[in-house]
Write a structure and sequence with these properties.
By secondary structure, the protein is of the alpha+beta class. The protein has 2 domains: about 130 residues, Signal transduction histidine kinase, dimerisation/phosphotransfer (DHp) domain (Helix Hairpins); about 150 residues, Histidine kinase-like ATPase, C-terminal domain (Heat Shock Protein 90), CATH 3.30.565.10. It has 6 helices and 7 strands. The chain has a 5-stranded mixed β-sheet, with helices on one face. Strands 1-3 form a two-stranded antiparallel sheet. Helix 4 runs antiparallel to helix 6. It starts with a helix and ends with a strand.
Length: about 290
């Protein structure tokens, strides 16, 4: 009887011991798991911090470059204005009326150019900071595009031929007209500006055959083209291709176009061959 009791007590004690060991093992395992989770979370937080610091550094670099380039771009027109105004101030009595008007026109052109560049800088700043909110409106797409084409034709003069075609684009779309106008007018102006011999510029609108159709804007010119070494950087602020020569420009137009396309939720692709022309395709969601 005593041996049976001892055997039973032994089994109970053994069971208690096993349960205790299992409990301890479970607690230790849980502790290690908790610590491992904390370590993983800490590593993720560190990586996020590193990315944030890197982005901050990149932003500071971009800001410095932006300010430096903007200062450089303003220096030349300001010098021109200073020179022209000095000549008018000190030598106007010796100038003919024609010369005076010529100097005044030069000042006005430079002031207009600086004003346009300031507006472009403000647009870029607002779009990149997210301060420009979309304000969609229902527009008659073809009429909207034709209006911009006609304005471009008037500014370009008889030397250039701008061809517009609506293939199968929707009649009406809901879109922010401000951003769409920036895209179309800037690309048409660029196409004309970099086609110095008056070659034909074409602009077509259509609807893609994707599963979810999108609006396709396509611009084709036969101008000087963009060298392959410049194509990756052409959408950067103040960047201009190496073959532009004396053609005026701030290097902000393509950056504004890219930002406007992004704000509208679209994509832009560019293909170009130097001395043969440039093709740009923009796809935008249809609402």
């Amino acid at each position: 009887m005593q041996s049976i009791l001892d055997h039973t007590q032994f089994r109970i004690l053994a069971a208690i011991f096993v349960l205790t060991i299992v409990g301890i093992y479970h607690n230790i395992t849980q502790l290690f798991k908790t610590q491992a989770d904390r370590i993983r979370q800490l590593e993720q937080n560190l990586k996020q911090l590193e990315r944030a610091l890197l982005q901050e550094k990149e932003l500071n670099t971009i800001k410095s470059q932006f300010i430096s380039r903007a200062s450089h771009e303003f220096r030349t027109p300001l010098a021109t204005i200073q020179t022209a105004s000095d000549l008018l101030k000190y030598y106007s009595h010796k100038m003919s009326e024609e010369k005076k008007i010529e100097r005044i026109d030069k000042i006005q052109r430079e002031v207009k150019g600086m004003t346009n560049m300031l507006e472009e800088v403000l647009v870029i700043g607002k779009t990149e900071s997210g301060k420009l909110e979309l304000q969609p409106e229902m527009i008659d797409l073809e009429s909207f595009c034709l209006e911009i084409v006609e304005q471009t034709r008037l500014l370009a003069g008889d030397k250039y031929q701008v061809i517009f075609e609506n293939i199968n684009a929707p009649l009406n779309i809901a879109i922010d007209p401000k951003f769409l106008r920036q895209i179309i007018s800037n690309l048409l102006s660029n196409a004309i500006k970099y086609s110095p011999n008056g070659e034909e510029v074409s602009f077509t609108i259509s609807q893609t055959s994707d599963r979810i159709p999108r609006l396709l804007l396509e611009f084709q010119d036969q101008g000087i083209g963009i060298p392959s070494i410049d194509q990756e950087k052409i959408f950067e602020h103040f960047y201009r291709a190496h073959n532009v020569g004396m053609i005026s420009g701030t290097g902000l137009g393509m950056a504004i176009i890219k930002n406007s396309v992004s704000v509208l939720g679209g994509t832009i692709t560019l293909s170009s061959i130097e001395n043969k022309g440039t093709n740009i395709q923009i796809k935008l969601p249809i609402v």
